[in-house]
Amino acid sequence: MNATELRASLGLAGIYALRMLGMFLILPVFALYANTLQGADNHTLIGIALGSYGLTQAILQLPLGMLSDKIGRKKVIYGGLILFAIGSFVAAGAHDIATLTLGRVIQGAGAISAAITALLADLTREENRTKAMAMIGMSIGTTFAASLVLGPLLAKYIGVNGIFALTGVLSLAALAGVWLIIPNPVQSRFHSDAEANTKRLPAVLKNSQLLRLNYGIFALHAAQMAMFITIPFALIKTAHLDKSEHWQVYLPVTVIGFLLMVPAIIYGEKKARLKQVFVGAIALMTAAQAGMALALNSFWMIAGWLALYFIAFNILEATLPSLISKIAPADAKGTAIGVYNTAQSFGLFLGAAAGGWLYTHFGPTGVFAFTSALMLSWLVWSFGMQPPKAVRSVMYHIGDSWQGDAAALSRQLAAVDGVSEAIVLQEDRVAYLKVSQQSWDETEVKRLIQQTF
After folding, report:
1. Contacts for 21-24 with beta carbons within 8 Å, 24 or more apart?
2. Strands 391-397 and 419-425, how do they pair?
3. Distance between CA atoms of 8 and 28, rounded to whole angstroms?
4. Cα–Cα dist 323/392, whole Å
5. What tens digit of pLDDT does each residue of 405-443 get?
6. Is the dihedral of CA 429, 436, 199, 133 positive or negative?
7. How far apart are CA 401 and CA 36, in angstroms?
8. What is the pLDDT of residue 453?
9. Which of 161, 166, 228, 272 has its CA 20 to 30 A from that of 106?
10. Do 423 and 309 meet the contact criterion of CB atoms below 8 Å apart?
11. Alpha helices in 297-332 (DSSP H)
12. Is the pTM of this model over 0.85?
């Protein structure tokens, strides 16, 4: 990476992390706080308040990404961060559940993830884009783990309304960061690897392998939201832990989950056994959900099942995007990721709303019966998944003035040893390839591409 690319990658990853920190910090303490507000007569309303963020995210995420193609990336990002800040301050001042829900809806309307990804694509060369995207992915995972620990601690000192105010401040800080740190792209254009293309939606939506993964991310985050409607109350009831002390449970289980996730991912990728690792993690997640349904009266059992949950969650959260990249058509990767992110956001909403309703009518056991059923259905469906090829994606720029035969060059590149798929998009000026993780003839690929200049 050159200096500009590194600055853009680190800057956007940091800005993404600041915004996600604001979202994740409230997760472990939200239900307990919302339960004290006026109008929170049942957990259904608490669940809707928690999940409403995901609903507006799901609705606006792809349209705002497409809008950034027309009016500019930074304009959409500025607008989204301002909306997120406004929603945070509305939630911070809420004294009733309706106002809190409104704040969450406004927060979700600041759906800028697609615009950030597109801006990152504008600012990085094709051969470095995967590294840049990985930086954002790492920032999200780190922020989530840190938030589970920091959320309860911050709630003790500044209250949950203070956390919402802090998220508003962080959003404004991120806005300043976009202005001061992130370079302006020399040229903004559509990137098939990073943005959704409506023309490719039918192919993505009909792909049964991608549908399995989209259902998976939906179910995974639906179960997560339903869990956090329930677990905070269970920790108070069984261990008599004040909400400010819940970090003592979350810290060790998240650390264990991270440490055991790394060797599992390495094994799956290096040994080409990613499907086995993936299905095994879903099975472990199913067991953890069923175990919690039967063990909510024992603190140590809850802690043990939570540890297994976070092992499975971290593996799945890391492997799902990798599988999307391996399975999606080379020229529709951005579209596949956009659908995947939308499914995740719908999962956040429906999981929280369903979890709240089930808690109200059937108690914690009803919630975990629901999450167990979600995981079991995903497990059954995952058995039919085709083992992904041991490939990775690479991209090459083919020259801004190139006017050659894209189909012919695609065939030549696909015939190179170790290349399993190749497509040249003349309008993007990019060659997208899927190549073997073991070995491939990079020299020949570069020779063919250099002939086009």
Report:
1. 21/143, 21/146, 21/147, 21/167, 21/170, 22/84, 22/88, 22/166, 22/167, 22/168, 22/170, 22/171, 23/53, 23/107, 23/167, 24/143, 24/144, 24/147, 24/148, 24/151
2. unpaired
3. 31
4. 10
5. 888 888 888 888 988 888 888 777 788 888 887 788 888
6. negative
7. 63
8. 58
9. 228
10. no
11. 299-327
12. yes
| Residue 447 one-letter amino acid | R
Mean pLDDT of the 190-205 span: 81
Q: Can you tell me the distance from the alpha carbon of 138 to that of 262, in angstroms, rounded to the nearest whole number?
A: 13
Secondary structure letter of residue 96 according to DSSP: B
pLDDT in tens, 216-241: 999 999 999 999 999 999 899 888 88
Q: What burial class does residue 415 get, using C-beta atoms within 10 Å of its C-beta: 0-12 exposed, 13-18 middle, 19+ buried? A: exposed
pLDDT given for residue 106 in this prediction:
95
Closest C-alpha to 49, from 61, 28, 69, 35: 35
Question: Apex CA 338: angle with CA 337 and CA 343, to 5°?
Answer: 95
Which residue is it, tokens 């009831």? 237
Expressed in percent and rounded to 5, the helix, strand and coil fractions of the chain are 75, 5, 20
Q: How confident is the model at residue 80 (pLDDT cuts 50, 70, 90)?
A: very high
For residue 3, what are its two tokens? 């200096």
User: For residue 277, which amino acid is it?
Assistant: V
Q: What is the pLDDT of residues 105-145, one digit of tens each?
A: 999 998 888 888 888 888 887 777 777 777 877 777 788 88
The amino acid at residue 237 is K
* Average model confidence (pLDDT) across the chain: 88
Q: Please name the helix (run of DSSP H) or strand (run of DSSP E) that holds residue 395, with its range, or none.
A: strand 391-397
CB 329 within 8 A of CB 199: no
Contacting residues for 156 by C-beta, under 8 A, at least 6 apart: 242, 243, 244
